[in-house]
Known about the structure:
globular, 24% strand, Jelly Rolls
Amino acid sequence: MFDGIRQYYQELIPKLSDEEWLQLENRLVIESYPKGSLVCREGENCKGVYYIHKGLARLYYTVDGREICTGFAKEGEYLSEYDSFLTQSPASQSMDVLEDTIIINLPYEKMQDLYRNYPIYNQAGRKIAEGLFILISRYNTRLLTLSPEDRYQYIIDNQYHLIQRVPQYMLASFIGISPEHLSRIRKKMIR
């Protein structure tokens, strides 16, 4: 069960010892969520950082009853409402699962304990935060500078699994357009 997440951490911090890994492993919590379940609800504190062992999760805002998707995570990736998790304040986004999903959760208090007692995890946390910053920065740049057609092409080229696993209306929201507009783009690209 922990092979994928162990490999993830060993790539982040190659000098991770067996003892340091064991300390992390002992703090991890395995959670199962059926398709459609909420992992983190807007307005509640996000209780963990979630490594997706199996399945697919989505992060989204709700504005005037409309869901605005800001991210997805599949097997081997992390997802969390990081602002809420790090500040232990109410989340501004919700996180749900789009398929039956198994998550490996590192709860806040257990992560803080690792930071206090095993400095190598401060390095891992920094690298994860840096990776998240780069991901968000690139997403924002694409959203602000690319046309909707180019944003969709980016997903085809770099995140094709989303096209296969995510409903079209969620993809449209992620790209920042209406489902009808995405349908027109797809028809134009097929020609």
